[in-house]
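Consider this pair:
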Amino acid sequence: MASEEAEVLASLADLCDGCGSIDFADTNEYIEGIAEGIDRRLLRRLRAGDFAVQAHLDLHGLKRDEAKERVERFIAESRRTSRRCVLIIHGRGFHSKDQIPVLKQALRNWLGRGRIARSVLAFATARTCDGGAGAVYVLLRR
């Protein structure tokens, strides 16, 4: 029991020092998806940050309709210019009504189905250094 507590305290100290990491994959803070028929190892690599981010889009302050338009244009332009991995910053919803992350949930839907989804191989919440739960990596089809 004492060694377990020491391990927890050491992990907490690492987090406070900025050296540790938090795995929030099993919380509602985390979103991910992968196109049908794509090897799930690709999603693991995306989640791990194995792909260089080649462009980013910041959706802060936009209404849902404006954000969808911008995402559609950004994805289309990114594919046209042969970008493979992009980052979309959606925020965490702290300034939204009732602090509900409206754009995050909308982005999950847009990337997972419909016109935008046809351009997407996989998407996953970004690592902390790239925006964490307020951003998402998107791996695009060639």
Observations:
- Helices lie at 2-17, 40-47, 64-80, 102-112.
- The CA atoms of residues 74 and 116 lie 10 Å apart.
- The mean pLDDT is 85.
- The radius of gyration is 17 Å.
